Amino acid sequence: MNQTCILHDSSAALLLIDVINDLEFEEGQRLVEYALPMARNITQLKLEAKKRGIPCLYVNDNFGQWQSDFKHLVKRCTKRGVCGVPVACELLPQRDDYFVLKPRHSGFFQTPLDLLLQNLHARKLILCGLTTDSYVLFTANDGYLRGLEIFVPSDCCAAVAKYRHMDALGQMRRTLKADTTASLQMDFEQLLQK
After folding, report:
1. Minimal CA–CA distance to 127: which of 118, 145, 140, 115?
2. Of 35, 89, 133, 190, whose CB neighbour count within 10 A is largest?
3. Half-sphere exposure of 92 (CA within 13 A, CB side)
4. 6-22, pLDDT tens digit by residue?
5. Are 45 and 156 in contact (CB under 8 A)?
6. Residue ranges per domain, the chain?
7. Which of 129, 116, 126, 140 is nearest to 191 (CA)?
8. What residue ranges of the chain have pLDDT lower than 50?
9. How far apart are CA 121 and CA 134, in angstroms?
């Protein structure tokens, strides 16, 4: 089988963090309330990013499934009756998307994400997904420590409570110099300037 590898040459990358998620945990049903509108916003942002050649990377927890892969994860999270199915189905990956499985909170910890971003020549990260106050925050922090510019569209991430979402966004603005402009107000032309 002949596969073509598409390598983008963009100064930015869109990271979709833990959006393929069964949400089968204690606060999962509460999170769906915030995650579904978030997913719809990410869908639109992803379309705009792809129009501009910005690569989209699914950076997803392996949920302790050490003998699994990303395709198996997608299949499991889109099964009927799974709490997170509406979010996962809204954000199904496309053929040209990239994926990285992570074992812990940060997308950088013990993963090839750093190397992939180098190969894509990405110096700016647009971070979206679940949850603002944990996985998005940890990934943003590690990206900032690597000298990357951080963008976290406020309407493209969610937490189990609005105050936790807002607190995390404030922390990223203060400590990581993150731009938290909502996705509809993002200036892609400025973002893609080298």
Report:
1. 140
2. 35
3. 12
4. 445 569 999 999 999 99
5. yes
6. 12-191
7. 126
8. 1-7
9. 26
DSSP state for residue 16 in the 8-state scheme? E
Residue 61 and residue 194: Cα distance in Å, rounded? 31
Beta bridge partners of 149: 124
Bridge partners (DSSP) listed for residue 17: 59, 129
Q: What is the CATH code for 12-191?
A: 3.40.50.850
Dist. CA 76–CA 109, nearest whole Å: 24
On the 0-12 / 13-18 / 19+ scale of CB atoms within 10 A, 160 is buried
Residue 185 tokens read as: 């107000």
For position 64, what pLDDT does the model report? Answer: 58
Tell me the whole-structure pTM to 2 decimals.
Answer: 0.91
Q: Give the pLDDT of residue 190.
A: 84
Strand pairing of 12-17 and 98-102?
unpaired
Are the beta carbons of 136 and 130 closer than 8 angstroms?
yes
List 58's β-bridge partners, or say none: 16, 99
Helices (H), the chain: 28-51, 70-77, 85-90, 113-119, 137-145, 162-176, 188-191
Distance CA 111, CA 102 (A): 6
